[in-house]
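Researcher: Next entry in the queue.
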Amino acid sequence: MNLARKIIAAHLTEGEMTAGEEIAIRIDQTLTQDSTGTMAYLQFESMNCDKVKTMRSVAYIDHNTLQSGFENADDHAYIQSVALSHGIYVSKPGNGICHQVHLERFGVPGLTLLGSDSHTPTGGGIGMLAIGAGGLDVAVAMSGGALHLTMPKIVKVELKGKLKNNASAKDVILEVLRLLTVKGGVGKIIEYCGEGVKTLTVPERATITNMGAELGATTSVFPSDEQTRAFLKAQGRECDFKPLAADDGASYDEEVTIDLSALKPLAACPHSPDAVKPVKDIGKIKVDQVCIGSCTNSSYADMMKVAAILKGRKVCPETSLTISPGSRQVLTMLAKSGALADILDAGARVLECACGPCIGMGQSPKTDAVSVRTFNRNFYARTGTASASVYLVSPETAAFTAVNGYLTDPSEMPQVGEIPMPTSFAVNDNLILKPDDFEDVKVVRGPNIKPFPINTELKAKVTGGVLIKCEDNITTDHIMPSNAKLLPYRSNIPYLSDYCLNPVDPTFSERAKAAGGGFIVAGANYGQGSSREHAALVPLYLKIKGVIAKSFARIHRDNLINSGILPLVFEDAKDYDKTDAGDELVIDDARKQIEDGEIITVRNVTKNRTFECRLSLTERLKKVVLAGGVLALAGKSGK
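Model: Structure for this entry, 639 residues:
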């Protein structure tokens, strides 16, 4: 077997490992972060589960760290108290970004990890089967439930050779995105193998698996080998090591080969992670801002490369450079090594060990700016500045660009050289709270925490107008913006409802409320990006009956189903062109149609025509949709 199938087989609780069929797997670990965590824990509390049932669950506070009002601090107090009271570890603000810290302190090869963040597959860099999901799926896992998913196809990416000419792991995943696109990983697991794998450290592998989320992949995974052992040993966790690899001659559904030695420094151009071109071909465009960090490129090795480039140089006077170390461990080691002083001397601004600018939490660039970032997403308006143009690059490209003030091809600059992995990392876990150290914790609830919406049973006849017609690749950032102004309200769905689909149409929320709900029509890959289930919960609050699209991103489709919103796919893509905003739609005998099969007939009353949609649901999911969502079904069944 290939490695992905081995791990799935070891955790399989239901179904057969046949691509396209529904399976269920046992979850060993979970993680949440504070942007999605409040909702996940509110849902977990509703399940009346006294203690978490996983081997280990960790609540990270790393997203909403800008405390410009009481809201974020209140959410942090709630998360800390509710987590500790249920046996969940807590990583406090300042300890670092969830994916970086989890890799350092908790990740174990061969285990399953489910996280309420789409970049949870970072854990695949250490040999985990790590999957991003909506908060409700994570809450179910914490209460002892299995994760149900469609058995993915397994894609083999064979790596040959070794990186050179200042090319990096970031360029590997950008090349995969160039080849497969942001839709190319949907319904698939990306498994890396080949001789080139041995040349990549765990942090480099984690950079690659992290951005597998941008492929739409279920997850990505590397083998667990001597590089893995060395990393865990340096973290004082060699006991967690387990060798894992695909069998010789293992079969795969698809195969891709990449020659690492032939890779050139690449950049993803605005406004999509798959709009990839060689840096050299883009040209020496003037750059206003450079941001280095995020869960993709904030490891110790990444930061040391940046420090080596900046040492003895100065940041261009017309360019702003920010550095966000991925964890307190990384920041501590930079300080002790003297590299932090080199970074500061060059003129960089060192930010908190948190997600920060990656999610629009500060450092929004100026009007019409060009911002070069080592992050994983460059979606339209994600920075908080709609007119900005964002390029995604490697730390090497970013650092040389900051010095020169224009986009710089690092292959034309002095070689940085290899940064040796430490034989011992600086381990200090005093910002990680262990639940065994606390007793009788009282859950703290601030006034900003509001109840989450629960749907009602699906009606026999579903009616509503088309409230909006969207194009392809609408992201969760479009559906439910995530920026410094809105992140403090992640536990307040009524407040967030005023901003749904605001980047697409600022009048959408007002019109949806006035109409009492309706339908959303969209193009391909609707809901790509973040795992935030707010992109489903807010439409639920607005009484959205269904989304009719050419295709859906996996996590968002799951979140819609969990909320009882119909994710309908045009059977004939031409019907998308024939359906417009303002059209009145009717689904007659909706319950019976869902019970009878996959094809759902929709009447367009305005156009006096009918068209067919596909709703592919297992028998289990049919019950979920008919009941009005997972929590509605649980309430109905008393479970």
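Model: The chain has a mean pLDDT of 95.
Researcher: Noted, moving on.
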